[in-house]
Amino acid sequence: MNKEQFVAAMHKKLHVIEEHERQDIIDEYINHIDMKMQEGKTEEEVIEDFGDIDELVKDILDAYKINTSSEKSNYDEKFNSFLDNVFDRFKRFISSFTSLDVDDVVKFIFEVFVILILLLLLKIPFSIVASLGASLLSDIIGFGVGSVFAAIWSIIINLAYAVIFIVVLFSTCSKRIDRYRNHESTSDFMEDFKESLRFEKRPHTEFESFDKAEHHTEEEKKEYREHPYRPSKEPAQTAGSVVEMILKIFSIFLFIPFFMAMVGLCIALGVLVALSFHGVIFVGGYFILIGCIIGASAFISLIYRTIWKGGNLR
Amino acid sequence: MNSQFKKGVLELIVLLSVNKKDMYGYELVSEVSKVVNVNEGTIYPLLKRLTNEHYFETYLEESKEGPPRKYYRLTALGRQQKQTLLKEWNEFHECINAFIKESV
After folding, report:
1. Do the chains contact at B25 and A28, CB–CB below 8 Å?
2. Which of A6, A43, A82, A246 has its CA 20 to 30 A from that of A139?
3. Closest partner CB to A32 (pick from B25, B49, B66)
4. How many structural domains compose chain A?
5. Distances A158 to A218, A243, A306 between C-alpha atoms, Å
């Protein structure tokens, strides 16, 4: 290697160091080479005396406390091995009392977390219904008796929510565990959750959704037809049908304002058309109204599909 | 000689050399390599480190032959470090020698 090559290589390998500093270091080496050459050595000999260039670079980087075998990476390694150790113990601990894989357990915990979030979201309509019903009752029936009725109403709604919460949580969890035991982890988690929400028609809908899911193999389907009933949850099913009734009633409440909004929007559209005959044209108004109508109808169909699906309207 | 031995005392030797008088890089390297037979290339990173740790400060001075030279000068902190290392070395040296006397 001659001087030029050496300098180029050093620049390249020391690129993490700020340019001025890097130049400073390399200048020292250039100076050294020049001095040695005055003493009668060749460029190549001097550079050969430097030894392995990578070793040299490592020494220089160490002087700037950059990576290599610094304490920090040692620390990281220790931390990593500690984590591995803990995870290994956790693995053994888990497998000591269940047939589940650790991966599955981790997945399962995550899924339970998601279920909890979904159920908490479900709390919103319930609290709306509870407060609406309570204020309606206390207004209509009168102050004294009305407040008692209102209290009872909100207790009922909250109880219903609690029942749904527990039933859905447990049935979904048990389904997931069954699946993991049988290593059917390909099946969709949301499917199980929806099935648990639909309650009463479970064997049927379960079967159907199973057929719909394209990624299941024929073999799995066959096994599924032979055992359509998973571990029985009879009380859950009856509780589920009550809950579904409540959901349907609630959905009707939700429909009313949207239908009103639709009617109002249609009337407004009619007025705009009538105005345009008289020479007043709001082009923007048309777009806004049509957009609102489409949005509202989309929302209504969404509610219809989510809550009434599987119900008697189908 | 064992390269780990050399590495350990190299810093002390460099500090002691610059303590005698200010030196430029090549001069310092030649001086040090007279004492310990070490790859001369590896002394520059050490100089850089000692400068970064504020044991050395540098200044440029014109030379009769060639470009201006970068001189190294020991700082107060450097002198302190030199004393510490010297003390450590002497203790270590005594300790090891005593042990060797016992063992041989």
Report:
1. yes
2. A246
3. B25
4. 3
5. 43, 12, 21
